[in-house]
Amino acid sequence: QGQLVESGGGLVQAGGSLRLSCAASERTFSRYAMGWFRQAPGKEREFVAAITWNGGITYYADSVKGRFTISRDNAKNAVYLQMNSLKPEDTAVYYCAASAQSRLIRLRIDDEYDYWGQGTQVTVSS
């Protein structure tokens, strides 16, 4: 069964940047839409960003639009989340996930995802 492994989390000051990576174990993920979600302590998991299987369309939560960029490299079986201008409220565990869903609007729903990584912690200090 395919696996997703996130990396790149850490501690950063407000205004700083981090780049998260998600490595997929199988080339089959190149045919999946990919998404990033996050979950802060005491809060529900929330959608951050998604990208279609060919990278042609991206989709962002309003809270990160203009600051975060999702991208993918199917030749490397990898998805990335570049996070700039980080804020303390961005602190959370970040998860990447893979979805067979083709409708972009559905990609903000976590139930539409079939595979999940274990998460990577991002902490933004004020």
Description:
This protein has strands at residues 4-7, 10-13, 18-24, 33-39, 46-51, 58-60, 68-73, 78-83, 92-99, 115-116, 120-125. It is an all-beta fold and 126 residues long. The chain is globular. The model has no long low-confidence stretch (mean pLDDT 95).
Shape: globular
Which class of secondary structure composition applies to the elements? mainly beta
Helicity, as a percent range = under 10%
Oligomer: single chain
Tell me the distance between the termini. 40 Å
Number of strands: 11
The major β-sheet equals: 7 strands, mixed
Give me the number of helical elements. 0
Encode the helix/strand succession as letters: EEEEEEEEEEE
Strand percent estimate? over 45%
In round numbers, the mean pLDDT is 95
Low-confidence stretches: none
Which value, in Å, is the CA radius of gyration? 13 Å
Chain-wise SSE layout:
Blueprint: E1 4-7, E2 10-13, E3 18-24, E4 33-39, E5 46-51, E6 58-60, E7 68-73, E8 78-83, E9 92-99, E10 115-116, E11 120-125
Parallel strand pairs: 2-11
Antiparallel strand pairs: 1-3, 3-8, 4-5, 4-9, 5-6, 7-8, 9-10, 9-11
